[in-house]
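Researcher: Structure prediction, please.
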Amino acid sequence: MAEDIRLFAAPGERGSGLVRYGAAMVLHQEGTISAEQLECYRVASADDGLDPVLLLRERGLTAPATATTEPETLVRALVDAADAYCGSLAGPGIAEVRQGLARFKDGTYTPAPGRANAVVAEHMPTALQELAKSEAPLAGLLAAATPHLDWITYDLYDIEMIGEGFAASHAYCSIIGDNGSIRGADFDFGLFLIAPHVLYRDHRHAAPELYAPLTGPHGWRFRPGTPLILKHAHDPVWNEPFQPHLTKVGSSPFLCLFCWTRDTDKPAEVLPAPDWAELEALKLDHRATGAPLHE
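Model: Predicted structure follows.
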């Protein structure tokens, strides 16, 4: 069994509490640690500086002497958790996405090459701490699995069209797909991360697409030049083929599950709009409602 020390991530490291909790959840599913031991890791996940071993001892429980969790096990556990999360949502496209997950989730696993990504290193811990307020188990699994996913900063857009801000401030990983950790033909399911206050300019593509935002609120629109609409975390967005869409990130990082359910080999197209400079300078007011944010 390949060694993975995620359960023993050093206390004090940023995001380490959720990493330990995520690894502990997988070990609990495997029967390696008890529900009582898992609860100690859950409680400690809120404080990166708190060693769960201290809680275990206070409650008269033994700390795991050794524990290994293969990267493949963590990634597949994350897929199961993401599928269950999608099942808790309502709206168009959810059933189609879950059908694809059921079809491909047991596909061939390929280990990630282990490339570091600066956007993930800087912004993922903050995004996961926000997610943990509402979805702690999912946040824990994401934290534990993130080092074993192939995070990429997409570079196929024309940088003058998509903007230097977005080009340098986002990352995504394909968990299931033609080039994913788990192989799936003409299907792409993964994670998307954008730094705070960044504008992902108006664009469209042939693929039908689900966004399941895990953080928020953020600004959205679905036609160039129209006002932004504030949408909160856990409010899914379904884009039909060639539906224009734009995202303006709020003060917290934008983290979402995404899925292209078909036509994954067809590239996205940026759609020019006259108000990009205004939107890139905009700082969203999170006290606003879902009403249009600007005229």
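Model: Residues 105 and 182 are 7 Å apart (CA to CA).
Researcher: Thanks, that helps.
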